[in-house]
Amino acid sequence: MLKLLCYLLLGLMLQTSATAEDETFTLRYKFTPGETIRWNVMHRSKVRTTVSGTTQTAEMTSESVKLWRVTDVKPDGTATFEHLVESVDMRQKLTGREEVRYNSRTDKTPPPGFEDVARSVGVPLTIVTMDSGGKVVHRERKQAKAAAQNQGHMTVPLPDGPVPIGHTWSFRHTIDVTLEGGTIKKVKTLQRFKLIGVKTGVATIRVSTTVLTPIHNPAVESKIIQCESAGTVRFDIDAGRVLSQQMELDKGVVGFRGKVSSLHYLTRFTEELAPAVSILPIVPDARLR
After folding, report:
1. Are 249 and 265 in contact (CB under 8 A)?
2. Residue 14 lies in a domain
3. Could you give the CA distance from residue 157 to residue 149 in angstroms, rounded to a whole number?
4. How many whole angstroms from its chain centre is CA 58?
5. Is residue 139 part of a domain?
6. Which residue has the higher pLDDT, 82 or 152?
7. How does pLDDT run across 180-223, given as a tens digit for each residue?
8. Which of 126, 155, 220, 239 has the fewest CB atoms within 10 Å, i.e. is most exposed?
């Protein structure tokens, strides 16, 4: 009798384990017409450059609010939304110089060098149509400066159909690198994703980006150093949106401008979904239009 009970318990455990392993999850973005979604974004970077025996360090911290204003949602989940930066607080410090800061909420006039940033705050940068898998169907740029920042995906692309934990998917991108003399070199990159777990309806996705094109020139490598990053994304399956993400990069290049030159790039990017609250829109300074 005891042996029979043990067999039954073992069978139940194996069945439960198999059910957990076979469970699949459908990851899709979900939007409602008229809703406004905000994320608090933090970007920190420290770049140390050494050329001809002289080392300079540039530190930058940016806190901003990213806003999507949804204007239309099709029956298949394809949504159209305005993409804006609602506010920004930036600090920049260079070796041997005073820190420069610009806060769009408190500063009426931006310091020199921050004029383009000020013009981009509180106004639509792009109008995007995106399907429920995160693929951009159409993009209309409202500001020329937004073009370089809005190539490729607007958010984390999701896999097709239900997937189990451990499932991986990837997407290839080609970026244009401007070389000395104005020539353009096309560099291929690969962004990999892996569903590493689901807990209480929140999926955790591991993300990494690598450069596929062989690069043998340190000068070119220094221009694409920011492409290779890695981190994690937390996605709310029921709500159909990114809850948070964190990407990091710690990479150096030697010989990008002579044999004794070096470049070290350290950065962290974080994004957190903000509570759904009503905030008055920010009106940009008319003098900067």
Report:
1. yes
2. no
3. 17
4. 22
5. yes
6. 82
7. 888 899 999 999 999 999 999 999 999 999 999 999 999 999 99
8. 239
DSSP secondary structure code for residue 151 in this structure: S
> What's the CA gap between 47 and 26, in Å, rounded?
40
Number of structural domains found in the chain:
1
Tell me 216's DSSP state: -
Give the residue from 154, 142, 198, 212 showing the smallest Cα distance to 26.
198
Tokens of 220: 């070119």
By residue range, what is the domain housing residue 200? 25-275
In this structure, the chain runs to a length of 289
- Could you give the CA distance from residue 135 to residue 23 in angstroms, rounded to a whole number? 25
Average pLDDT, the chain: 88
Weakest mean pLDDT among 12-16, 87-91, 131-135, 232-236: 12-16
DSSP characters over 129-198: EE-TTS-EEEEEESSGGGTGGGSS-SS----SS-EETT-EEEEEEEEEEEPTTS-EEEEEEEEEEEEEEE
Q: What is the CATH number of the domain that holds 220?
A: 2.30.230
